[in-house]
Specification:
By secondary structure, this protein is mainly alpha-helical. The protein is globular and about 55 Å long. The longest helix is centred in the C-terminal third of the chain and has 16 residues. It folds into 2 domains: 117 residues, Hypothetical protein af1432 (Orthogonal Bundle), CATH 1.10.3210; 80 residues. The chain has 10 helices and no strands.
């Protein structure tokens, strides 16, 4: 019989510290948030196994160690190659964890294959206006340091419309959660050029002072 607390201890000791090597938008605070949100969303699905879900949430971004472009498939590979998980999970359960880790990516071209993938994907959608802009700007400052303030603004604005605006590629999968309401609130800010510029300026100055 596996115990959630035993798996949680393993994750905190062996998995969470690996996020310290990633950018500020994907650090241990991020993985803790995804883990917490996933377990919170699971209350709507009583048949979900919390041990499988927590593990999928913990591993979902480990593939960033191999680069961003294919990090979702690399995360799935890392799950399948981690022999330590066989202490608690069957082959089928490990495949479920790997599929959920792979399916979390917002730009994925297919719907998550299982309820675990839907929950992890939803938990990874941190729909908070300041958090969204801060994470995107942190990424831009790290990966496009040659851009000046206006260049960072234009890059970020294009990304916001592509991902979060009506018709954007972001998909929400858990209707009972709060993300749909929060996404609509962010879209209203995005539509107000002055409000969005003020939000950007505040965060830009806090990150570059």
């Amino acid at each position: 019989m596996r115990e959630l607390e035993e798996i949680r201890d393993f994750i905190e000791r062996e998995i969470v510290p690996r996020y310290d090597a990633f950018d500020a938008g994907h650090n241990r605070d991020h993985v803790h948030t995804v883990m917490s949100q996933a377990l919170s969303l699971a209350r709507y699905y009583p048949d979900v196994d919390s041990c499988i879900l927590l593990t999928a949430a913990a591993y979902h971004d480990l593939g960033l160690a191999c680069g961003r472009e294919h990090h979702h498939t690399d995360s799935a590979r890392i799950v399948r190659e981690d022999e330590r998980l066989r202490r608690w999970f069957s082959d089928d359960e490990i495949n479920t964890i790997a599929d959920a880790a792979e399916d979390h990516r917002a730009s994925s071209n297919h719907e998550p294959r299982t309820i675990y993938g839907r929950i992890v994907a939803e938990a990874d959608r941190i729909i908070d206006s300041e958090t969204i802009v801060r994470r995107a700007l942190q990424y831009g400052l790290k990966h496009n340091p040659e851009l000046d303030r206006e260049g960072q603004y234009e890059r970020l604005l294009d990304h916001m419309h592509e991902k979060y605006d009506y018709g954007g590629y972001l998909q929400l999968w858990i209707p009972q959660g709060d993300n749909a309401k929060r996404l609509e609130e962010f879209r209203q800010i995005l539509a107000d050029k002055n409000a969005f510029r003020r939000l950007f300026n505040s965060i830009y100055e806090s990150l570059t002072k």
